[in-house]
């Protein structure tokens, strides 16, 4: 991380003081803001064996690294690519198609859990995307977007 820099320059002194031989200084502030990102950029899960069986469960970790002493939030959104919410996958609490995750002080990870639904259709693998945005008291890391592939099991 690149530190933030402040350039200080003393131009005048009140009360009879004087400016010494070093009237300027550079102050570097360490970047200690937490980073929030998905633990992986891509996820793959097989479709459950057939309809009427329990759905498959995909757990996606949203990780916060760095200084964890403050509360941080981040918005998330789940969007279809060629998979369809409600028929191929179902987010359920705490996951919905969009919302806000709140990291309490000291919390480093929150899981989104998504049900993968079985069907009998012979179809190509299907995908949807997870996106993070709008962090507060944090910044987004390199995996702010993740792609989930549902691997078809029908012949």
Q: Between the first and last Cα atoms, what is the distance in angstroms?
A: 49 Å
Strand order of the largest sheet: 7-9-5-3-11
What's the SSE pattern?
EEEEEEEEEEEE
Please report the total strand number as a whole number: 12
Unreliable stretches (pLDDT < 50, length at least 5) are none
State the shape. rod-shaped
What does this structure look like?
With 155 residues, the chain is mainly beta. It is 0% helix and 50% strand. It is built from no helices and twelve strands. The chain has strands at 4-9, 24-29, 35-38, 42-46, 56-65, 72-80, 89-91, 98-103, 109-116, 126-136, 139-140, 145-151. The strands form three sheets. It has a five-stranded mixed β-sheet, with no helix packed on it. The mean pLDDT is 88.
Keywords:
155 residues, 0% helix, 50% strand, mainly beta
Present the secondary structure layout.
Layout: E1 4-9, E2 24-29, E3 35-38, E4 42-46, E5 56-65, E6 72-80, E7 89-91, E8 98-103, E9 109-116, E10 126-136, E11 139-140, E12 145-151
Parallel strand pairs: 3-11, 4-12
Antiparallel strand pairs: 1-2, 3-5, 5-9, 6-8, 6-10, 7-9, 10-12
Quick recap:
The protein is mainly β and 155 residues long. The protein is 0% helix and 50% strand.
């Amino acid at each position: 991380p690149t530190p933030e820099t402040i350039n200080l320059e003393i131009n005048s002194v009140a009360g009879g003081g004087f400016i010494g031989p070093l009237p300027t200084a550079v102050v570097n502030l360490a970047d200690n803001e937490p980073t929030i990102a998905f633990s992986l950029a891509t996820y793959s899960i097989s479709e459950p064996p057939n309809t009427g069986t329990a759905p498959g469960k995909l757990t996606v970790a949203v990780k916060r690294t760095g200084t964890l002493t403050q509360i941080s939030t981040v918005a998330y959104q789940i969007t279809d690519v060629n998979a369809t919410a409600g028929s191929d996958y179902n987010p359920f609490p705490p996951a919905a198609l969009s919302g806000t995750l709140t990291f309490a002080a000291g919390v480093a990870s929150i899981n989104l859990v998504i049900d993968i639904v079985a069907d009998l259709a012979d179809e190509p693998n299907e995908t949807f995307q997870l996106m993070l945005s709008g962090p507060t008291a944090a910044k987004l890391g390199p995996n702010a977007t993740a792609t989930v592939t549902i691997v078809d099991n029908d012949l």
